[in-house]
Design goal:
- The protein has 4 helices and 6 strands; from the N terminus they run αααββαββββ.
- By secondary structure, it is α+β, with helices and mostly antiparallel strands.
- The longest helix has 20 residues.
- It has a 6-stranded mixed beta sheet with strand order 2-1-6-5-4-3, covered by helices on one side.
- The protein has one domain: Roll (Nuclear Transport Factor 2, Chain: A).
- The protein is globular.
- Helix content is about 35%, strand content about 35%.
- Strand 5 and strand 6 form a beta hairpin.
């Protein structure tokens, strides 16, 4: 009897191991990767690249996007399309975070997005707790 259960446990051990490790394996498309504890480093990188798909991995399921005063409460999918359209019309050259503040569970950053011909102010509000950081609000406005 001992041998029977021992064989079952040995045959199931790879499955059990996989099941234990699976949640620790991030999805490349929807799980944001936080490098070094500063949530704004990877977010800034994706804004500078104009990579709406990778940036959207940081979006909450529902978020607020305000571009040039037009405010939208939208889903992650809608927000991705709005940001993709913005980047297609205003191709980023550089993005730099000029101010960061806040304490968990909320942090915000203000940055300048330079397209070569225009400069935009970008304000990001991020919920840092619980679990995975998520962008709750993005505001983009023209600088004077």
């Amino acid at each position: 009897m001992k041998r029977f259960f021992g064989n079952i446990i040995l045959s199931l051990s790879p499955i059990i191991l996989w099941a234990m490790l699976y949640p620790a394996v991030p999805s490349q498309t929807r799980t944001p990767q936080n490098s070094g504890g500063d949530v704004f480093i990877p977010i800034a990188k994706y804004i500078q690249k104009g990579d709406s798909d990778r940036l959207s991995a940081w979006f909450a399921e529902n978020l607020e996007i305000e571009i040039f005063g037009n405010k939208n409460e939208c889903s992650r999918t809608q927000a991705t399309q709005i940001i993709k359209n913005f980047f297609s019309q205003h191709t980023p050259k550089t993005f730099s975070v000029i101010h960061k503040s806040g304490n968990p569970p909320m942090k915000y950053a203000i940055g300048n997005l330079n397209t070569g011909s225009e400069v935009f102010r970008v304000v990001l509000l991020v919920r840092t707790n619980p679990g995975t950081p998520q962008i709750l609000r993005i505001r983009i406005e023209k600088t004077s």
